[in-house]
Design a protein that fits this description.
Blueprint (H helix, E strand, L loop, with lengths): L6 E5 L3 H13 L3 E5 L2 H4 L9 E5 L7 H10 L7 E7 L3 H10 L3 E5 L3 H14 L14 E4 L2 E4 L4 E4 L2 E2 L4 H12 L7 H9 L8 H13 L7 E4 L3 E4 L3
Parallel strand pairs: 1-2, 1-3, 3-4, 4-5
Antiparallel strand pairs: 6-7, 7-8, 8-9, 10-11
Helix pairs in contact: 3-4, 6-8
Length: about 230
């Protein structure tokens, strides 16, 4: 993958980790910039950054704060974020997923595993979603929401809806299977490719966040225990 299609920011106070990731991600063909703090990294340009790998950073502005701020901003909500945190910090991992993190890496991490996760994320988010049958036509409308499956654009009242790439993938998957339940496992498989280490809670967390962003149309994203989720136009 050329740097033009894969730019990564690494934010970590540990200079050794910054250098390790800089050298190895660069050798994989990614464009890499490293910073010691979010403040040093400055404003994130979604046109120039595809993925941020950030340490949990126990300080006044933590890695969790960074993730929440990035994902709450419609302009940058589509930028991927991996949180690096100490192994065993389950509560921190859940907090990161709730804030919008796309994945997490436990420290001390396996470099081979981290590179594999990065490659998988980049591959997922640089290809069109191809899961599920395409319904008749090229667009699905739910209340004031329009999902164009041909152009992969999602608008609300004619304005772009600020979804992360993961949220967009989930909504497109449900739109392609409109009025039909899609199981949690099927969503997990289509969007996360059943990656080992991905917390099962991430499906429910992303759908909960997606439903809120959909506003009134969120009521059309329904679930049935033991069956799955459905985008209903009825």
């Amino acid at each position: 993958m050329s740097p033009s299609s894969g730019h990564i920011l690494v934010i970590d106070a540990d200079a050794n980790i910054r250098e390790l990731l800089d050298v190895n991600l660069d050798s994989e063909g990614y464009g890499v910039k490293t910073y010691s703090t979010p403040e040093e990294a400055g404003e994130i340009n979604p046109l120039d950054v595809h993925l941020v790998i950030i340490d949990s950073m126990e300080r006044s502005f933590s890695g969790i704060d960074f993730i929440a701020e990035l994902k709450d901003n419609p302009q940058t909500s589509g930028v991927g974020v991996f949180l690096c945190t100490a192994a065993g910090s389950q509560s921190l991992v859940i907090e990161a997923l709730d804030a919008g993190a796309d994945d997490f890496i436990a420290k001390p991490f396996s470099l081979r595993e981290l590179l594999a996760r990065v490659k998988s994320y980049m591959r997922r988010h640089h290809h069109l979603l191809k899961a599920g049958p395409t319904p008749p036509g090229t667009a699905v409308s739910v209340r004031d929401l329009n999902i164009d499956l041909r152009t992969h654009t999602i608008t609300k009242d004619g304005m772009p809806l600020g979804l992360s790439k993961t949220e967009s993938q989930i909504l497109e998957l449900l739109a392609r299977n409109v009025n039909t339940y899609v199981s949690r496992a099927e969503i997990h498989s289509a969007v996360w490719n059943n990656e080992a280490g991905i917390n099962d809670r991430i499906v429910d967390t992303n759908i909960s966040r997606l439903r809120k962003k959909m506003g009134d149309a969120g009521a059309s994203l329904v679930n049935r225990t033991g069956i799955g989720y459905m985008l209903s136009t009825k």
